[in-house]
Design goal:
Number of helices: 1
CATH class: Mainly Beta
Largest sheet: 4 strands, antiparallel
CATH topology: Jelly Rolls
Helix content: 10-25%
Number of strands: 10
Distance between the termini: 42 Å
Shape: globular
Amino acid sequence: MPRKASVFFLGSFLMFLLVSCDSKAVFDEYQSMPNQWNKDNIISFKVEAPDTINTYNLFVNLRNNSDYKYNNLFLITSLEYPNGRTFIDTLEYKMAAPDGTLLGTGFADIKENKLWYKGYKAPFAFKEAGTYRFEVQQAMRKFGDANGVEELDGITEVGFRVEKK
């Protein structure tokens, strides 16, 4: 094989490995939003339990842009087990520094936030074989207002991720 072709092949192979290898990810899926998240829009993900022995970290992934104008984020989450048992939580996440700078990783306007859901305090194991359903809904309120924020601006994608511990 000519030297130029072998260098190209090797470079292509290494790039493929770097891009495709995420050894921790078991499940990683996003749903796109039209730059805002309606309070009635419940995002749902179905995850097949990888096993019932090992422990995992679960994350809510969120992509937002500078249209997001809050320092925090409130979410209502539910995790339904294969037997129908459901656990519901209300969670709060910090989304901006005190000076208003958006937290997260990314360049320019878009920030990606990997928000802990399960596994950070106690190990999480899929105790039952089968399909789990994770649902998430935004629950933002303006200070002093009992009604929820109808359209939460600046949210471009919502995701769910399961990683090997």
